[in-house]
Structure formats: C-alpha cells, structure tokens
Specification:
heterodimer, A: mainly alpha, 2 helices, B: five-stranded antiparallel beta sheet, four-stranded antiparallel beta sheet, 5 helices
Amino acid sequence: MSTELAHHQVTLVDLVDRLLGKGVVLAGDITLAVADVDLVRISLRALIASVEALDGAGTRDAV
Amino acid sequence: MIHVYALTEATRAMPRLEGIAGRPVTELAVAPLAAAFSTHRDADELAVSEECLWAHERVVEALMAERAVLPVRFGAAFGDERALTAALEPRREELARDLERVRDRVELGVRIRVDAPDARPRSGRDYLAGRLDERSRIDGVHQRLAALAHESSVTLGARGLTASYLVERGAVERFAAEADRAAGEVAGVDVVCTGPWPPYSFVGAAA
C-alpha cells in the first residue's frame, strides 16, 4: 500500500467514523438509505483492518 | 426532501455553498440557530458514498471557517422545512448551549498505536508486564495531548487508542507539534493525527 493511499484511507476512516457515528442526531421524518449506511460500515471494517496493519508499519502524518 | 449539514448561528448570511449533488446550500432560521440544508429530488441523490460524505464534510468545514457549527450526523432527512423546524424547535436551547461550548474550537483525531513486541513473551507474567507497559506508554501520550485540549473522547483498542480532542482553533499547530514530539520521545509508539475536523465527537447525544 502506498503511503499516500494509506493516508487517504486513514482520513476516510476518520470521516466515516464521524459522519455516520457522531454529530448531532436529528430525528428526521425520513431515514435515508439505511442499507447503504450498513454497506459503508461493512466496507469500513475491511478498511480499518488495512489501517491497523498500516499503523503497525509505522506511519506518521502531520495535521 | 431536505438534507441537513450543520446547525450554526443565525447571526449572519450564509455564504454561497454547493452541497451534495451540486445542490445549493440554504439556511432555515430557528432562532437563535440556523440550519444549513439543501433540497433534493429524492433519496437516491443522498445515498451514502464516499463522494456524498465528502460533499457533506466540505459544507460543514466551509461554515466552520467563519462561525461556530454543530455538525449533524449523516443519514436523516426531512420532508420539508416545516418538519425540520418542528424537530429543532423543542431543542433550540440545548443546541444553542452546545454551540457556545464548541465556539472557536475544532476537533483533532488521533490514533496512538504501539509496535508489537520484537520477542515473544517468555511467560504469562512477562506478557502481562509487556501489556501494562504498552498501556502506560499509550496513556502517557494521551495525557500529554489531553493537557492541550478542553475535552477528549477516547476509544481503547487492542493495540492502541483512537481519540478525539476538542482544541482551541489557535492551538492546532501546538497540538500537532506535541503529537509529533510525543511520538518521537515515547519508544515504540506511533501517532497519527487528522484534522482539524468539525466537532463531531463533542456535540449532542441522541435526540
């Protein structure tokens, strides 16, 4: 995995963690694409596995 | 159908922003708050994808550049402005307080990982001592970073910790430098920082 791609994935994992799992919860009258949210979570798990491997390899990124 | 990006203050006009599927972002005032939203033809435009999530994030970040924001979790939509107003009305005081709490502060994401030990532990006791040592090194880094933050939110994992820190906007560089220093000074620890993010991890619990 190239470092650049790896950093992109770290950021994507952080993005998905926040947008789908955190933030103000507004109880909308329509809940969108629940199946899609689940799909993203599943692919996220695969992604996290690769990020953990990456972290073990010793990457560092500045803010 | 309405998609909400963030809640912000109703004090000044919203900048011109392009949201998901290129739809313009407009605002709905529910004083003292304003909700930033875009209007969509149907749910297909809002299906979760990487592109869609980044579009949501871009809008929240653009708003965050010049005002206090409460980022809204992705995934709920409203039929129309009236439904959105009805959802916000009863919570505006609580949300306005949250908005003040995060004003001029941003969130930084940090992953702290320890390297796997070089040698296999010789005994169970050896193994436990190793794990304790790992935990104390991770905690040491976390404490150094928490000292620069107003609040922190931490999840412990098998070989490390994933944390978010709520940091003064002007202290981001100092925080990043401290994360770098800590990673250099604490043996066998790796620190990955991302951000600054809108304060997703520090705003309202479930409705």
